[in-house]
Amino acid sequence: LGGPDPLDYVSMYRNLGNPALNVPEHWHYVSFGLSDLYGDNRVHEFTGTDGPSGFGFELTFRLKRETGESAPPTWPAELMQGLARYVFQSENTFCSGDHVSWHSPLDNSESRIQHMLLTEDPQMQPVQTPFGIVTFLQIVGVCTEELHAAQQWNGQGILELLRTVPVAGGPWLITDMRRGETIFEIDPHLQQERVDKGIETDGSNLSGVSAKCAWDDLSRPPEDDEDSRSICIGTQPRRLSGKDTEQIRETLRRGLEINSKPVLPPINAQRQNGLNHDRAPSRKDSLESESSAAIIPHELIRTRQLESVHLKFNQESGALIPLCLRGRLLHGRHFTYKSITGDTAITFVSTGVEGAFATEEHPYAAHGPWLQILLTEEFVERMLEDLEDLNSPEEFKLPKEYSWPEKKLKVSILPDAVFDNPLH
């Protein structure tokens, strides 16, 4: 409606719960605006009644009602606006099992509930509207330890554990901002018997993250700015083509499909029935895919092999490298870091992933600003040993560098300022 917030409305309901199911009374919040409310292209391009409406989903949230509370707190509406702003700006959609690392108490208090998982709302089924289908994704507040477990294993597994612990959510996954203990403190057996066993058996379902990351091609001198193969933080950022963007989006979604085959879709994959994997073509896809392809010099569109690469991550992204290696590559899967500050992307692939353009013969390959790195199981095991101190962030001093000269690979963990200001 022309205002600064992405969501048009957030409805707030008093839900009496269900004593028979041990569901306490709570406030229930429902967003309006991520789906197409109008069908006249003012916010979302109308794509028909059979596909997703707008982004295809709305957000919900269930907050435990405090004794004597007569009106719902309004901060969950601000939280929803923040998440919706991310969706509109990035055009990345959410799926059940996704996590959002927020790094701050959701209500700006001193609470341990500082991150979110997303799941299907237990009461609200998908609906068919005149402008497409809408599903309802519920935000579930979690502690840092629970977020890490979801990353290392998978979001759905942790959500199931939260459902079994009444004070941590119960069957309807109601967030209690006053919860002072994690599910692992409430029941210490959950970590060893469920999570550790699940990681060992299933690996991680986290297929990628938005991150502060960059990569340099060390095969060419960095001062050679005219060479299309030299992609440095300080140079003019190059645009990913529409097809590359779609493939990376697909890659990030693939790992969320339980038991899916570890396949990277081919770069020239055509959209099936005009739909992306998870939603209809967005305005960004339709308006920019042609022009962004034209921005890239012809040499960049060709896949090229690199002799030597330097990977750069901030500390939070770097801490996920052991997860990427142990939980993904050792299980024959892939893992993608997509830069939040530009079009740079880094995908690690194992030898079991089909459709990758990195090969055992040429393990480092790039397509524009998208780098793929193929790592053999033997090298992964060695990297895990060398990167062991990434698991102890409290003892970490930046910058930190790891190098494997015979593999011509270097990894640097750098302060956030390097990525926030590319001129550093």
Automatic annotation (TrEMBL):
Occurrences of domain Suppressor of fused C-terminal (ranges): 193-413
Database matches in InterPro entries: SUFU-like_domain, SUFU_C, SUFU_C_sf, SUFU_N, Suppressor_of_fused, Suppressor_of_fused_euk
UniProt biased composition (Basic and acidic residues): 276-287
Location within or outside the cell: Cytoplasm; Nucleus
Superkingdom per UniProt: Eukaryota
Residues in Suppressor of fused-like domain copies: 3-179
Region spans: Disordered: 263-290
Membrane spanning residue stretches: none
Keyword Nucleus: yes
Gene Ontology cellular component annotations, sorted alphabetically: cilium; cytosol; nucleus
Protein name per UniProt: Suppressor of fused homolog
Gene encoding the protein: Sufu
